[in-house]
Design brief:
The protein is an alpha/beta fold. It folds into two domains: 155 residues, Alpha-Beta Complex (Quinone Oxidoreductase, Chain A, domain 1); 128 residues, Rossmann fold (3-Layer(aba) Sandwich), CATH 3.40.50. Helix content is 25%, strand content 28%. The radius of gyration is 19 Å and the shape is globular. The relative contact order is 0.16. Bound molecules: NADP nicotinamide-adenine-dinucleotide phosphate. NADP nicotinamide-adenine-dinucleotide phosphate binds next to helix 1, helix 3 and strand 9. The site of NADP nicotinamide-adenine-dinucleotide phosphate has 24 residues, from helix 1, helix 3 and strand 9.
Length: 310
């Protein structure tokens, strides 16, 4: 099968198309004929090896954690899918989406793709929506509370804004001024231009005393203190990237990442199919342009997701 491959850790430019043996599904696995994939920040991390101690890749490595395709073969003991089923999946570190065929686990990280979703829409959903839902789980803001979402226009942020609004929260969305309409369409009550000044001060002007929680999708480590300052005393800072255990004014920290509890990916896909959850695709590339998709994702301002259609 044709695959976009990293032979060793290195820059995205060194990815090359090559032939690899088509994988064979083992027990509990499914072989998927790929129809679409989407690009995520972790793809670059795994290709370059920038966090190889924590998340190592094995070579030859095929990037791509978001999968959308058709079940081609079913491994022993797999019971939820049959050959021919349209499927989407979050594949985490094993990756493999940027190839003609990919292996996935028959697990809650895989779900049937509703007929109303295109392959690209299916691929744009798993990491972004599952991570948004997982971060809101640990945010624990009560109904009618307020949340500042930093990095709101990106792949995770575009889902986080929608799910936070639907949870009954007042949503302050941090993005570029030019993304204001986009963020309001997703459900943001207020938009804040992170390039125009201090986000925390802007948030305090809108919610005097501070928001109940900040979900920061853009900063890591000590830099999170800047946005944690938008939270009220005793509030919460949530991040998928990790940082200090707590902040000034007894603002607590909660760190978490993508999770796929039983039934959640199905539920999110069903909401998208009904049109109650928008899937924002910034740009779609052909499989032959997959390396360029990774390069452009890493270099450009993206609204929502970048997808690759086979
Ligand atoms: N731990 C996990 O399991 C997990 C899972 C998924 C994602 N993540 C991480 O979560 C982060 C967000 O993921 P994503 O897929 O949403 O990435 P993304 O699509 O690249 O979005 C990142 C967003 O952050 C914004 N941003 C960048 N610098 C900023 C700054 N200084 N101030 C305010 N906003 C800024 C970007 O806006 P501009 O385009 O305007 O710069 C963009 O909207 C990534 O770092 C990713 O690695 C972790």
């Amino acid at each position: 099968m044709k695959a976009l491959v990293a032979r060793s850790y290195g820059p995205l430019e060194e990815l090359e198309f090559t032939d690899l043996p088509t994988p064979v599904p083992g027990p509990g696995q499914l072989l998927v004929r790929m129809e679409a994939a989407s690009i995520n920040a972790v793809d670059k991390v795994l290709v370059t090896g920038s966090m190889r101690e924590a998340i190592p890749a094995t070579h030859p490595f095929v990037p791509g954690v978001d999968i959308s395709g058709t079940v081609e073969a079913v491994g022993e003991g797999s019971t939820r899918f049959v050959v021919g089923d349209p499927v989407i999946a979050w594949n985490s570190i094993p990756s493999g989406a940027l190839a003609e065929y990919a292996l996935i686990s028959d697990a809650p990280s895989a779900a049937r793709r509703p007929a109303a979703l295109t392959p690209a829409q299916g691929a744009a959903l798993p990491t972004g929506a599952l991570t948004a839902a997982a971060l809101l789980d640990i945010t624990r803001v009560p109904l009618h509370g307020s949340v500042l979402i930093v990095g709101a226009s990106g792949g995770v942020g575009s889902f986080t804004v929608q799910l936070a609004k639907r949870a009954g929260l007042t949503v302050l969305a941090g993005g570029r001024d030019s993304d204001s309409d986009f963020l309001h369409r997703l459900g943001a009550d207020h938009t804040l231009d992170y390039r125009a000044g201090d986000l925390a001060q802007a948030a305090h002007r809108l919610v005097p005393g501070g928001v109940d929680a900040v979900i920061d999708l853009a900063h890591a480590g000590p830099a999170l203190a800047t946005t944690a300052a938008a939270a009220k005393p005793g509030g919460r800072l949530v991040s998928p990237l990790g940082g200090p255990a707590a902040f000034d004014r007894e603002v607590s920290a909660a760190y978490g990442g993508t999770r796929a509890p039983e039934g959640r990916l199905e539920a999110l896909a069903a909401q998208a199919a009904r049109g109650t959850l928008r899937i924002e695709i910034d740009s779609d590339y052909s499989f032959g342009q997959a390396r360029q998709a990774l390069l452009d994702y890493a270099a450009n301002h993206i609204r929502g997701k970048v997808t690759v259609t086979f």
